[in-house]
Design brief:
Pfam families: Epimerase_2, ROK. There is one protein chain. With 651 residues, the chain is α/β, with parallel strands linked by helices. 41% of the residues lie in helices and 17% in strands. The protein contains 23 helices and 21 strands. The strands form 5 sheets. Strands 3-2-1-4-5-6-7 form a 7-stranded parallel beta sheet, sandwiched between helices. It has a 6-stranded parallel beta sheet with strand order 10-9-8-11-12-13, covered by helices on one side. The protein is elongated. It starts with a helix and ends with a helix.
Length: 651
Amino acid sequence: MEENKATRKLRVCVATCNRADYSKLAPIMFGIKANPDEFELEVVVLGSHLIDDYGNTFRMIEQDDFDIGSKLHTIVRGEDEAAMVESVGLALVKLPDVLHRLRPDILVVHGDRFDALALATAAALMNIRILHLEGGEVSGTIDDSIRHAISKLAHYHACCTRTAEQHLIAMCEDHTRILLAGCPSYDKLLAAHHRDDYMDIIRNWLGDNVKEHDYIVALQHPVTTDIKNSIKIYELMLDALISFNKKTLILFPNIDAGSKEMVRVMRKKGVEQHPNFRAVKHVPFEQFIQLVCHAGAMIGNSSCGVREAGAFGTPVINLGSRQTGRETGENVLHVRDADTQNKIYHALELQFGKRYPCSKIYGDGNAVPRILKFLQTIDLDEPLQKTFCFPPVKEWDISQDIDHILETQSALAVDLGGTNLRVAIISMRGKIVKKYTQANPKTYETRMELILKMCTEAVIDAVHLNCRILGVGIGGGIIQHNELIHGSTFCAAELGHIMVSLDGPECMCGSRGCIEAYASGMALQKEAKRLHDEELLEVEGMVDLKKAESVSAIHLINAARLGNHKAEAVLRTAGMALGVGIINILHMVNPSLVILSGVLAAHYQAPVQQVIGQRALTSAQSIQVLTSDLEEPALLGAASMVLDYTTRRIY
């Protein structure tokens, strides 16, 4: 039994749908046929190969001495979107019988055509392994969607470029089943690059008077997602080619929706009778290689222009969006918005007759040996069900967990006030679940110790309140584009420590002249106590301060309201300091609004607005100063830093 397993040939079915994919599949078919001890080849032909209007290109497969096991007429004529869908359906109806009869070990499918999608779908549903050629590439049209869909159905991949390989890996395909092979057609075109009879081929297709590098190859296909525009581009291309007045070999478009309208445009302009044009339905690939290699330029939107032509350094004008996203060499000039004849004509002037360095982006001529070796490594005893290499995720979905649903996502907010320290548990909706307040200690060490103690208490309470703490937020300040500016260490907007005087009062931060040293509640309390000690605070109508527990900023404000000139002077200086500090902010970040919060906000609003009007630059003088109506704006601002960052922002 082991001996039978060792000598068993791999039955490979190669399915080809059109002239373009055959140029990529033929080298592999020749390689398989040349190794009869290893492989058994079956050939299935379908699609436009079997249509007279497209050259009956199945004959070239027969001329290459391949036995065609099945010919499937799968094209529903109409050349519109509905016909493409019906063609896929017809192929799906006919393919099961063929695949059941052939029973291949593996089906080789190429590219991004709708016929290939039908092949991959049928094989996947019939548990036949699939090798997809040229997956992972990007071109910018519906072909991308079809190509990626085939890649998801395929079990193995032979791609052409490193970028395509990375795309497949990003699509969660198993990297051990991806072969970076290069394009099989490059094996043939690089080997046949220099043929002695190339001028005979050129004259056979374009006439005896044509010279090397003095003719154009044109090949434009419809873009099925934008048929109207692609027909317009085709018409403009023909007008530009007629005006350019060079011998041109123009190939009929493929069978996609919109091709019939393109052919009508070509015939309306008399291209088939024009002395400079030769319009053909098909050119054998070996001869087409020579025509592209020695052309003065190639124009259109065929993948051949951005792929094979680069191997020869042939100048290319790529029109429209059909190849957007393809990797290209420097020989390709893109005219993506080909909206005028003059733009296309100018591109022809720039490119015609140039030669560029040969590019090997899509292959080095050794793709077929790599693919054959890859086929030999396929273990038919491996499970047929393919697996996808998704990025790591949690083992369970937290959104479906009842505890997560019932809990409240929250933040711990900390407000380091001059008089009090405050900590609050704040929910995602901005609701203060629980608040903690303690008098602010005098020293830094005891202050930090108290903050940690209050936060610890809040975290313990959060568990009982069914609140999940996402983080701790301290402070806040500048909002730009509806978001808080956090800074590199989440300490941005220490606005209270903007210096407004070089020799002002000492601040708790250790410096002098900070806004906080003039205008904070603690600073005003300090000034109130000084006036009280000097018996300069009390005025008629004030509450007897001797009966009060301690002198506060409120006493200073009340004294000023009752006409105490000393208290008024202190508040005037504080308002001036705050106003000057805010002016500095206005000049730096130019905000649209200033919002003051806290118990002193209402008192400072008018003085700050006045200072801005007197001292700010003209561009900032009209900025309005408002007071916050929020219950606890400082705590809410601090919480928003956490809730904003953990639930929405991406860094």
